[in-house]
Every structure is written in C-alpha cells, then in structure tokens.
Amino acid sequence: MAIKTAIKRNTYFDSVSLMSVTGRANAVAGVDQAMIGMGTAMNKEVLQNVGMLTPEAAEAQSGDLMIVVRSASDEIAEKALVEIDELFKQKGGNESGRKMNYATIESAVAHVPGANLAIIAVAGEFASREARRALESGLHVMMFSDNVSIEDEVALKTLAHDKGLLMMGPDCGTAYIGGVGLCFANAVRAGNIGIVGASGTGSQEVAARIHDFGGGMTQIIGTGGRDLNEKVGGIMMIDGINALARDPATEVIVLVSKPPAKSVQDKVLAAAAACGKPVVACLLGGSEEAVTKAGLQFGKTTKEAALKAVVLGGKKEAEINKRALNLPLIAETRAKLKPEQRYIRALLCGGTLCEEMMLIAKESYDNVYSNITKDPARKLKDVSTSIEHTFIDFGDDDFTRGRPHPMIDPSQRLARLVQEARDPSVGVIVLDFILGYGAHEDPAGVMIPALVEAKQIAAAEGRHLEILGYVLGTDLDSQSLAEQTAKLSEVGVTIASSCTNAGLLARGFVSKEN
Amino acid sequence: MRAHVTMQARSGDGAFLARVNGAAFAGVVHSAFHRAVNIACLSNGELHTLVTGDLDDGPNSLVVVTEDFLAIGICQGDSVRAGGGSLAIAGKAVVNVAGAAVWRTPLPKTHCATGLLRRRLAEAEAAIWRNGTPGGFIEGMADNEVARLTTRMLHEGADGLALALGRGDTDAALAHASRLLGLGPGLTPSGDDFLTGLLAARALCRRQGDLGSDGFARGVVQSAKSATNPIAYAAIAKAARGEVRERVARLIIALGSAAAEPFSPALTQVLAIGSSSGTEIAFGVIRGLASLIDNGEWDHGHQDRH
Amino acid sequence: MSSINDLFSKVSVINVGLEMFKDDIEKQGGSAVHLDWRPPAGGKPELIDALEALARPEIAARIEKANQEAVERILKSQPVLVGFGPALEVVPGMTKTTILHAGPPITWERMSGPMKGAVTGALVFEGLAKNLEEAAALAASGEITFSPCHEHNCVGSMAGVTSASMFMHVVKNKTYGNVAYTNLSEQLSKILRMGANDETVIARLNWMRDVLGPILREAMQIAGEIDLRLLLSQALHMGDECHNRNVAGTTILIQKLAPFILETSFTTAQKREVFDFVASSDYFSGPTWMAMCKCALDAAHDVPHSTILTTMCRNGVEFGIRISGVPGFTWFTGPAQKVIGPMFAGYKPEDSGLDIGDSAITETYGIGGFAMAAAPAIVPLVGGTVDEAIGFSVRMAEITTAENPNVTVPLLNFKGVPTGIDMRKVLQTGIMPVINTAIAHKEAGIGMIGAGITYPPMEAFEKALLAFARQEGVIDQSAAA
Fold first, then answer.
1. Residue in A closest to C340 by C-alpha
2. Mean pLDDT of chain C
3. Can you give the pLDDT at residue A98?
C-alpha cells in the first residue's frame, strides 16, 4: 500500500464542498481510503490510528487542509491526488449556479424565454427531424448539417416559409444575425449592408471585403448551398431578400451564390428588383446581362460586389483603398519562374473561394481541373493527383467524409502542399487561411513547417516555388489578421489582399505570354 | 470588470456595528465563501463575519443584503477598513451599516421544570438521529475506516465529557474536551461544533452567567486556540461567553423554556447549518443542557440572571 | 412578417450538436444554451421510423389524449390502507403452493442467488419442505407455481418472495376501486428479501405471521382506513424520497397506527415487540409506499393508445416494463443492470448482485429517484452531490408528462413530482428513468452492501416501442424485432 499526501495551506473550503469532495474522493479509481480534514492534532491522531499519518500530514497546521490517500501503488496514489484536486475545482457546494442542460428542443423552448433560433449541427440523418421540431416550436433554424435529402430540404423550407420563419440550410455554415456571428463567421463592423448568400465562404469573403472597404453589416442570411436548385426554387433567398427589404437598418442588399438554374434566377432577380432597395448580385460565373436587365448591380467578383455595395451604402469611392492589383509584383514573380513552371495548384478550404479563383483562371486558361467542377471533362478522376491547373476544395465531401473539415484539421492540406512542391511543373501554390469564429486558432501557424519544407524542396532542385496565401479575416477577428499575415510573409509567402486578387495574381504569375 | 459594489447591512452584532460606526475597525479577509466572509481584525486577530441575507445574526457578524460574496470578487487577503458609516473591502465592495438593526444573543427568559427538560432532550436527541446529517456523530452508509474511527472517537469524547461534567470533575472534563477539539471532518471539525453547542447551552442557562466562574469553559477556550483553526476557535470562544448565532440560541431557549412551545422548528433550523455542523451543534446543545441537570445547575425558578 | 425582423434585433440560440458554436456566441455577448442532445433511439433507424410514424399528427393526437387520461388516473388515484391479511386470504389467485416474486416472469432455473435463497426459505416457512435442500428440490419439481407479484396486484421489495401465510398490506384505490398488496418489511440484517433463509429468518417470519400481522390487522379493523397519499406527501416534505430514505415516512406511519395498535386485544409485551420492531429500522414504511404507487399505477393501465409506463420492476436477471396502451400482462424486458454507488466497508463492485425488486414502482409513480431533490441527505449515500440530486428531479421532467399537484418537493419551490413516464420521450431523448436503490450481495443471505443509482435497459423500451407501433398499425407487422 502506498500513502500520499497533499496539503492545502491556509485554504478554507466550506463544509458542504468538503463533504462532497470527500465522498467522491473515496470513489476515485484506485483509492483504497481517502481522508480529507483540517490539520488538527486530533485528526492527525485518527490518521495515526489507521496507519496513514505521513510526515507531511504530521507537519500540517490546524488551518491547513490535509488530503491523504492510500492506494495500491505510489503511481496510483499520485494520480488519485490529481483527480481529487480536480474535484475541488468543480462543484462548489450548493451555491454553484444550477445550469441545466435540456435534452430536447421543446423543453429548451419551454424553459428559455425568448429563444428564437436553433442551430442544428447533428448527423444528417437526424438533422431534418430536429429542424422540423424546431420550426414547429416557432424557432428559426440554421442547419449546419449536410447530407440531407433535397425532398427534406424542400419540405422544411416550405414549412418555414409558411410560418414566416428562416430556414438557413441545410449545409449553411455562415450567418450573422442580430450582431452575432453564427457558426463560421468573421467579426465585422455594424453598418447598413445585408447579405443573402447561398455560399458560406462567399458570404464571409464579401463581408470581409465590405469591412475592409470601410462599410459594415446589418445581417448575413445563409440559405444553404442548394437553395437555388430548381427543386428548391430559391425559397430562402427570396424570403431573405424580402426580410432585408423590410429591415430599416439595411440600405443595400448583396446576393452571393453560384449561378442558379434559369427559372430560379428569374424569380430571384425579380424579387430583388421589386424589393425597393439597391441590390448587388454576385453570381459567380453568371450572366451580367440578366442582372443588369433586372435593374440590379452586377458583381463579377466578390471584391467588385463588395466595392459596389459599399459605394451604394454611401461611402465615397475616392476614399476607399481598393487594393489595386499589384502589376509590378506579377511581372517580378513571372521572371522568377522557369518556363516549365506553368501550373497553378490551389489548395483551398473555402468552397466559394475555390470557385471564384477557378473562374478567374478559366478566363485565361482552358486546362483548369478541379474536384468541384460540373464539367466532366475537367473533373479530377483521382482527387489526390493534380492535372495541369488544379483547384482543390478540401472542404468538399471527397475529403470530409468521416474526417473533420480542413478549417479544423489541416493535415490533408499539409501533405498535399509538400506533394505539389515536388512537382517541377508547378509555378504557384495558392492557399487560403480562414479566420473568425469556428475557425482554427492559428491557421497560418500550423502550416508554417510544411511551407518551409515546400520552399526548401524547390530550392534544393534549383526552383523558385511561388506560394501565394490569402488570409480571410478582419482586423476584429480574434486570430489577429496582422499576425497571421506576418507569419506567412516571414517564410516567404506572398500575401494577396482578397480572394479576387489571389485569383488574379495566381493567373498572372504563371502566364507565359508576353 | 468588477464594478465597485455597494451593499446594505440589514442587522448586525451590536459591538461590531459600534466599531464600524466609530471607524475603529481594520482587518484583512481571512477566508471567503459564497455566503460568508471572515475578516481577521488587525488589532486582536479576532474573526468578524459578513453573512448573506438568508443567514441569521451571530456574534461579531453583519447580515448583508446580498446573495454571493465570491461573485463580487472578494478573496483572502483583501483589506477591510471602516469609515464613514461603512466597511470598505479592498475597492471591491462597500457595506453600509446606517440603519442596520442591532442584534445581541437572545437570552432565555424562563426555565422549565427539570423533568420536562429531560423529556424534551430525549425527544430532541431522537429527532437529531432521525433527521441529522451523517458524517460526524451520525455514521453514514458510505463510511470507511477513517470515518468509522472518527465517529467512535467523537462518541467516546462526548460520553466521557458528559459523565465528567455530571460529577463536577473539571479536570477530567477538560481532558475529554481536548480530545474533541479539532476532531472530525468539515471546515469546523465535528468535535468543535459539538463543543460550541455545549458551551453555548451551558453559558446561556447556568445560574452564574459570567465566564469567570466556569473553569471548564475557560479551559476549553484556552486549549482551542492552538488545537483548531481560527474559524472554529472563534465560535468556541464566543459560545463560552454566551454569545452564539441566533438559531442556536433559539433552540436553547425553546428546549429550556417554561412555555409549551415546540422545539422542532428551531431544531430544524439548526440542523440546516453547514453540512453536518448543525447536527453536531445540536448534539452539543442537548448534552450541554443535560450536563446542567446532572450537576444540579438547572434552576427552573430563577430569572434575571444577567 | 415581423418574426424574422424580431430575430434581426436579438438572437437567442438553442444550440444542437457542436458545443463550440455556443461558446463562440457567448464570447460575442450573445445568448445560447447548448442542448444535451443524443440521437433519438440510439440512432437505430427502425426505431426512429417508429417514432416518426407515431409522430404523425392524427396518431400523435390520439396518443396525447390517451396519455392525458392515463396520467389523470395516476394523479386522481387516492390509495388508502384498509387492512392487513394473509396472502392466501386477500391476494387474488394465491394458493398454498404459489410463490410470488419480484420482477417480470422467470423460471426457477434462471433465478438469481438471492431469489433462490428467498424461495427456499419461504417454502420452509410455509411448511412445504422440511429443510432448504428439500425446498430446492420442491422448487424445481414443477409443483410450485411461480408468478410475478405484479400479476397478482402485488409488489415485493428486493426478491419480493411472497407466500401464502405472509401478511399483506391491503391498499384500496378510493377513486377507481382497484386494490394492491405487498408484504411486510422484515426490517434489518439477515432477511428473506435479501435471500437469507436460516433459522433466524424463519423465526422472524413466524413471529410476523403470528404477532405482527394479526396486530396490524386488528389495528386497521379499528382504524378503518389511512390515507397513504397524504402521508406520502408529508414524508416528502420531511426529507424522504420514499424508496431508499423512509425515515420520516416510517415515523408518521407508525404514529398513525400506534393508537390503534394500542387498542388491539394483544398483550402489552406483544405490542411492545411490534413498536420495537418498527423502530429497529427506518425501512418499515418502504413497502407501504410501494403498494400505494402500485395501486395508483394499476388504475392507469389498459388505457388504449397510451404510451405511459405503468410498471418498472426487476427480478435480478431481467428488468421488465409495462405500457398502459399494451393491455394485460405484456412484458417488455431487457437485462437487469448494475447498481452504481458507494458500498459498505469491505465490499467491492464485483460482490454486488444485479438490480432487483419491484421497488422501482416508486420511480414509476414519480417518487424515489425522481424526487431525490426532496431528500438531499440521501445524496452522499448514493454517491452524488446535492446539485446532482436536484438535477435528477429536473431532468426527469423531460421524460414525463405532468406534475403531481398533491406530491411536491419543497426545495424545488414545491414543484409536483414528475409523473407519467412517456416511453416515446425516453427513446427520443435517451434519458432513462433514474432509480435509487439498494445494492444487494450477489450471494444469497448476505444482504444489503450499499446503495446507489441504476437505470433500466434501453432494450426494454425499444421492444415496447416497436410492439406499440405495430399494435397501432403504423408500422409493418413484419418489421423485425
């Protein structure tokens, strides 16, 4: 038997806590006997009588608290002492705030007055049920879960629409409601611009640009990635537009999404046109003509959409730092690359960021491959092997089935970075680093070793490897935008100031024309 | 983040209030809990206590209208100064005493007949066994070797003490008492709580109320100073002088009163003190009163003793 | 519509799934509560489908209405003690060679050690066998009829073994007329209900048959009736939860009985024996509350379309439940579970037997583990903290239907105890009814070695749900069990 002691000097705990800890201490794994008491002569006599009076206990004063533990071995006793110490930090007697966790949405609604939004991030097969219960209890819903059938999505959004509630999702990761960022969102200044987005990182990017240009947000409503599908018909996008139209604080509305099916596009643009406020439609890869014909502003890129919104919102264009594309930098970098270094490899976390950069590349190059393109001729057969210009969305199902999102677990990107660095045909590797709520606490930091290694691999083979980084964040995000960009710069990463710029720079770097 | 909090004392020990009003109090927080703060007076080391509004008055205490001292950020080491009719705690909080009601330990006005007292004591003891909290005198089902031994030693000490007091043997009584001081679990060890109850009962109900004439009480206080922690010591020292918190006094009064009031409400209140402290104090009160019967000091006709 | 625009001014979130989302909201000064969510029915698709099917508006409405009726029957029941009598005389279907036992049906061969010990002891007590070996042979011979207490309107604590000569409480439901029974506590140390069966046990049983039982019978003949629900609610106000802690309940029960005991025709010495017997253990009233609960819950059984639990019981091998809407004695079972809690000195978890007894009828009614907040003193004895005890009472509200206005808990601002366990809610939330109970040694005869908390097996609820759904016609009869 081993006996170990811990003494808490001149530390006073109330009796109820002491009783509670004593009871639980005796139940700690490996504890044969535990004694917790003040270091008085009589208590020491008790210890003596049961053979547990250690030298430390013998020295304790009457104002000290003795914790003496007897276990099968020294190791177990030490471990037990650590666990018992934890018990002191936990419940502090009958005054500790009685925080109840409810088990169902209905009981939470019954007990939390004023609850108005449910965030649902459970496995897809349960998500619809929980969302329906939330809607039926009168809650708005934000559904982060995906893997929900389109039929369920239609049913939920119809139910929500009929009840005048928002159904954001499935597959909605970003929202900003009532001044609070929900799930994955950046801290932004309050202002007069509202976003309705069918693309999570797209909404984040536009909001971050707006903030950078000096504007501010009222609300960001997410609709989920599939809202503009024909079957769903843009229910939430239209409801979102109308809600922002009614919101007195919103003076400009921005729509962010990929181009919808034609019938849906018509409906959405018509709703936007009728809403009575200026609308900027950022339909990545979509038709400018249709938008302007509807009387709306077209945002060809996320940057352009943000800029137009900020100006419509009242900022003077001349006063805005538009972060113009650094043409000398493009020339300089082109010169550093060898002729055979012709390809862009974009390894991205943000789906819309990937989409946008890919579109920009496709304006100049035909041989652009991806895991998220609809074009079968350009879809990667094997997502782990790049072909020519390759744009990878690491957040897509291919990479996230059974694994955490790359924003949380960087390991797949790290490995791919090093792989691409070995390929002599690579001219520039593009990486995004997403900050804000829900994101990694140090996205740049975790990539540094791999970045250094990548650069070294290329240098050893006599190549300059251009690594272009884009940090999506604001100066208000907790991860410190400044520190993140500094870390990357230090290891030789070129920093782009926006997703749009990153796409343009990457395209420019590998251009071999004169 | 902590705003300066202002609180009102609803009532307090007369002597403590006088010192605060006279700006004659300076101290340091000795220990802080959710519902109580102990302050060590710099001049004589005596502990003074602030308690939350749901607790009762007691010696050297102020009842403050608040719910949680820890939430205000009060902690060990904070300085405490009296001035301008209030007590300032390290820039974190101020306790106003203006208008606070003055409290003193209530005293028994009548004594019942010995036979009735005996019966009540028997009933009360049975009630404590039924409703008290295990951990000290009462063995709990989850007991272990340490706990069982402690309980046995508590009983041995208490029984020995009762017999010694009954036959007027002060030396033997002190020997037993010294084996109760500091014995048992809890912030105020079980033996100390027992002695607090016993000393308070004897002091409030003896024919001579002056501490000077009770050698036993004097001796216990003397030994207690080094045998236990300051918080338990403070209670014992006050109890020996006939000063004890309101609910304990009420129980002593109810048990010994010539009027036919039931004692169980008062007993329930005392049992609710702390974890098993109330149980131990209650046992002490019972044995203390019994000891007065046993050595002939229970005088049911006598009034105006103080 | 203004609803969305209200959301724009202030968002108050109920977060289901990833707790970090809630933390981030709080960092921004927003309000959020995190749900303690589990996949319904443990994620099993067949059960989820059944739950979904039962949630269809017409079906759900029918169930809600039935549940309301079942719960009303529990709440409106007024069980009163009307007498005591030998089982052979008062218990329906009792015979000289019938042995009733706790829990769902079980054969002699499968019985646990303590129950076998109790059975053989009872057979010797009844004079059907000369010694324990003969008794064992007799038990295995097929001549003894074994039946659950529950199927004879009875309940039995621990092994629950009830035989013809044992005196039973007779508890009548004044509102609905049904009657319930249970035998008498043997009080402390070596007792039949823990599987002990030596001469001291038999001798005590003899005394209970010859002195205790008859005195109580005569006392009740003089008394007429005693309102048990009233005493129960008083006991809860005095720190009992009436399953594991019965200090107050026993005190007020014997206080009620005492004058009548005094007036019986027995000798002073015998009456004194009875008082001493009751005083020897607080547990005396334990069976009384069990019978009271059984009386109320039986009145709520057989309400068509109701998903309310009317029985939870264990025989040391299996845990059985009954659902009001599945009529008669249809049992849904799963394996009996381990009881977790502090043990008396010298005993280890390996020594403990599995959960046993009909005493879970108290939790089924809404007291016992469901009213732990009424008995904070019991908390260290079941290994927890006061906050946890209070938490259990609040948590059980998630799986029940109503509060009992007549049986309240002072510490929770006189909230009524949670009543009407709904099996749909149990499966939906994954929250199991919590049971406070004694830990008995796994070998016959040693007795109680601790006290703690246990839960029913989910399996029993799963079977019940599928059977109910099939019965309601909402899922395919051929769906695999």
1. A27
2. 91
3. 42
- The more confident residue out of C345 and A353 is A353
Distance from CA of C450 to the nearest CA of B (A): 7
Whole-number Cα distances in Å, B167 to B170, B171, B196, B285, B292: 9, 11, 21, 18, 11
Asked whether residue A94 carries a pLDDT value surpassing 70, the answer given is: no
Q: Which of A395, A410, A485, A468 is nearest to A440 (CA)?
A: A410
Tell the burial category of B24 from Cβ atoms under 10 Å away from its Cβ (0-12, 13-18, 19+).
Answer: exposed
Contact yes or no for C299/C77 (Cβ under 8 A): yes
Question: What pLDDT does A13 receive?
Answer: 84
pTM of the predicted model, to two decimals? 0.65
Question: How many Cα atoms within 13 Å fall on the side-chain side of residue C310?
Answer: 34
Omega within 30 of 0 (cis) for the link into A170: yes
Residues of chain C falling short of pLDDT 70: 1-2, 380-384, 477-481
Count other C-beta atoms under 10 Å from residue B145's C-beta.
Answer: 18
**Look-up of token digits 């897809």:** A124
Kindly list the residues from chain A whose CB atom is less than 8 angstroms away from the CB atom of residue C25.
180, 182
Residue with tokens 């710099």: B42
Chain C residues whose CB is inside 8 A of the A236 CB are none
Model pLDDT, residue B208: 57
| Sheet strands (E) in A294-425 | 297-298, 343-348, 368-370, 389-393
Q: What secondary structure does DSSP assign to C322-356, as a single string? A: EETTS-SS--EEEEPPPPBS-B-TT--GGGBPPPE
Interface residues from chain C to B (CB-CB < 8 Å) = 238-239, 247-248, 251, 282, 342, 344-345, 377, 380-381, 383, 450-451
Q: How many CB pairs under 8 A join A and B?
A: 105
Tokens of B265: 């409400």
Determine contact, residues C319/C312, Cβ cutoff 8 Å. Answer: yes
Quote the mean pLDDT of chain B: 88
- For residue A95, the distance in angstroms to the closest alpha carbon of chain B comes to 7
C-contacting chains (≥3 CB pairs under 8 Å): A, B
Chain A residues whose beta carbon lies within 8 Å of the beta carbon of residue B274: 14-16
* C299 CA to centre of own chain: 15
The rounded distance, in Å, linking the Cα atoms of A281 and A296 is 7
Taking an 8 Å cut-off on Cβ atoms, the answer to whether B275 and A35 are in contact is no
> Measured between alpha carbons, how far is residue B285 from residues A15, A188, B205, B256, C284 in Å?
20, 66, 11, 11, 30
- The shortest CB-CB distance from A40 to any of B38, B68, B182 is to B182
Query: Which tokens sit at B177?
Result: 């008492």
For chain A, list the contacting chains (3+ Cβ pairs, <8 Å).
B, C
pLDDT score, position C341: 78
- Closest alpha carbon within chain C to A113: C12
Q: Which of A19, A103, A219 sits opposite C8 (nearest CB)?
A: A219
Nearest CB partner across the interface for A46, out of B36, B153, B275? B153
Supply B217's token pair.
């009480």
Q: Is the dihedral of CA B249, B255, B260, B261 positive or negative?
A: positive
Task: Please write the tens of the pLDDT for every residue from B171-192.
Answer: 999 999 999 999 999 899 999 9
- Cβ contacts (< 8 Å) between A163 and chain C: which residues? 3
Task: Classify burial at A423, counting beta carbons within 10 Å of its beta carbon; exposed 0-12, middle 13-18, buried 19 or more.
Answer: middle
Mutate to test the interface with B, among C381, C387, C411 (most CBs of B within 10 A): C381
> Apex CA B83: angle with CA B81 and CA B86, to 5°?
90
Element (H, E) at A499: helix A499-509
Tell me which residue in C238, C248, C381 faces B140 most closely, judged by beta carbons: C381
Query: What is the spatial distance between Cα A256 and Cα B158, in angstroms, rounded to a whole number?
Result: 81
Residues 6 or more apart in contact with residue C318 via CB below 8 angstroms: C103, C104, C106, C333, C334, C335, C336
